[in-house]
TrEMBL record:
PROSITE patterns referenced in this protein's UniProt entry, alphabetically: BTB, TLDC
Domain TLDc span(s) in chain numbering: 304-509
Every BTB domain range: 24-93
Keyword Thylakoid: no
Organism encoding this protein: Anaeramoeba ignava
SUPFAM superfamilies cross-referenced by the UniProt entry: POZ domain
Record bears the keyword Nucleotide-binding: no
PANTHER family: KELCH-LIKE PROTEIN 32, LD33804P
Protein name: BTB/POZ domain-containing protein
UniProt keywords, alphabetically: Kelch repeat, Repeat
InterPro entries attached to this UniProt entry: BACK, BTB/POZ_dom, SKP1/BTB/POZ_sf, TLDc_dom
């Protein structure tokens, strides 16, 4: 048997489709420049997981035959589309980052090209671009590039600091750097000092921590306000009282934090090693409310899920730590319980719409607890955009996140696994539909039939597709893997949700 291959001719023929736009049936619109790219669905579907999901869905973009995409320049989009059609692309140190970003946003399925691009970027990493490469790789969970950049940064940390690379980072990038487990800055006091220098740079103040004593009260207050959104990410329990005192004495760090560190330091000297480790872990991020023993707090009235947790006070503190903008401990109330209110879309929306930021907890029949947080108000968003009643649509929420909880015996590794929304995909964070329950991207989905009065699990199962769409894939998990799809509920599909509860701030109405 003989075969004839002429892939070059085939690639040229497909390129002609893109150039002539003949039979094009879909438009990609640059949200920033309004440039229109006429394409063909069958090519996009074959070459991009992003478009596979889009075309398989009943989303507005699929039905209207167009989609708006941001964060990709016209020139880069042109190159990427030409590659999708022809399999050929020209890349250089100047455009490699833009191309990699585009491949991740559009979820290009050509792994050979993506890996080639990653290898090329690794070969061209330098002091000037290493931090940008790390932020990009971390944002899209490109582990091999992230590890490479982390190693490079760690080896060249002094040179990066000397050139002020950290000071040029954006607030979003600072969040990423402080959220990672990387050891660029091995000590917490180094993190604090770098954060203060970053704030001084953004405020155009002299760049030396030795200059702090000469700053005015207004300047100190400005620095304090600038670092305030990040201060909870500093593990003060690992900083000595002597190191923190200079900042406390000028009002940059609160006196209460210094007192807590000092008290803990004194107490730990009298404790055995195991108890010391326990205390350091437990109060790692909670020095504002520090006490030697857990403060007595009340569980939101009526919550079945929290009371079923073997250490409910610990759970509340960990939820508060993961979602600092949501006062879960002091002013939170249960607004919906599937056990009390009914497990239907109708009751869910009746109780939860127009309630402001909400936290959702699920408990499965096998006692697994997971959930999500949305900072937006569905109904207010609907009114703002003048959406029609009974219409389904996506809601942008750059602050949303999903999480899982370990419910086994307490130990030092027991924690909440938090997956924040990927910033570049925040427009698809929350899905609203009258016949659906909570839906975070396509990562956590609670569906029902077309009848909102029917229970959630009557016709359509609850499921999740974690790692394929919107939220950050956690370390150790890979896309389209069985372990990843079953990460939250313990099974890949047909989640058996026993209880669903929704919490809101008491003053949010």
């Amino acid at each position: 048997m003989q075969f004839y291959k002429n892939q070059s001719k085939l690639a040229n023929d497909f390129s002609t489709f893109l150039e002539t736009k003949i039979f094009s049936d879909f438009q990609i619109i640059n949200e920033n420049t309004n440039t229109i790219f006429n394409c063909h669905k069958f090519v996009l579907f074959a070459r991009s997981s992003y478009f596979q999901g889009l075309f398989r869905s009943q989303m507005k973009e699929s039905q209207e035959g167009k989609v708006e995409i941001s964060g990709i320049t016209d020139q880069t989009m042109e190159k990427i589309l030409n590659f999708l059609y022809s399999g050929t692309i020209e890349y250089s140190p100047e455009n490699a980052f833009e191309l990699l970003l585009a491949t991740q946003k559009l979820m290009i399925t050509d792994e050979n090209f993506v890996n080639t691009l990653i290898s090329f970027i690794q070969q061209n990493i330098n002091i000037e671009n290493a931090m940008d490469a790390f932020v990009l790789s971390y944002s899209f969970n490109i582990e091999n590039l992230s590890t490479f950049c982390s190693s490079f940064i760690q080896k060249n940390i002094k040179e990066l600091q000397k050139k002020g690379i950290f000071n040029s980072l954006t607030e979003q990038e600072i969040h990423i750097i402080l959220d990672t487990n990387q050891t660029f800055l091995e000590k917490e006091i180094q993190k604090l000092r770098s954060l203060i220098l970053w704030a001084q740079s953004k405020l155009e103040l002299p760049l030396s921590t030795n200059e702090l004593t000469s700053f005015s009260k207004n300047q100190i207050e400005a620095i304090r306000n600038k670092i305030s959104p990040f201060i909870h990410k500093i593990h003060f329990c690992e900083i000595s009282p002597l190191d923190i005192f200079p900042y406390s004495s000028i009002g940059l760090i609160s006196e209460q934090i210094y007192t807590n560190i000092n008290n803990l330091n004194i107490f730990l000297k009298k404790s055995n090693e195991k108890l010391a480790e326990f205390l350091r872990f437990k109060f790692r991020n909670d020095f504002k409310n520090f006490q030697i023993f857990v403060p007595k707090i009340s569980t939101p009235k009526g919550s079945n899920i929290i009371r079923s947790f073997s250490r409910e006070h610990y759970l509340l503190h960990k939820l508060q730590e993961s979602i600092p903008t949501f006062d879960f401990i002091n002013s939170c109330s249960l607004i919906y319980s599937s056990l009390k209110d009914g497990f239907t879309p109708k009751e869910f929306h009746l109780k939860c719409d127009n309630k402001g930021p909400c936290l959702v907890l699920f408990k499965t029949q096998n006692e697994i607890i997971f959930g999500g947080f949305s900072s937006v108000d569905k109904k207010k968003e609907e009114q703002k955009d003048k959406k029609k009643e009974n219409q389904s649509y996506w809601i942008s929420d750059p602050n949303s996140l999903i999480f899982s909880l370990k419910t086994g015996p307490f130990d030092f590794s027991n924690h909440i696994n938090v997956a924040p929304i990927i910033n570049t995909r925040s427009d698809f964070a929350i899905f609203y539909a009258p016949n659906c329950g909570p839906q975070f991207g396509t990562d956590i989905v609670v569906s029902s039939s077309k009848d909102p009065s029917k229970p959630f699990d009557t016709f359509y199962s609850s499921y999740g597709d974690f790692g394929v769409t919107k939220f950050t894939l956690l370390s150790g998990l890979s896309q389209n893997h069985r372990k990843t799809r079953s990460f939250f509920a313990g099974v890949e599909k047909d989640w058996k949700i026993q209880v669903m509860e929704v919490f809101a701030q008491e003053n949010s109405n």
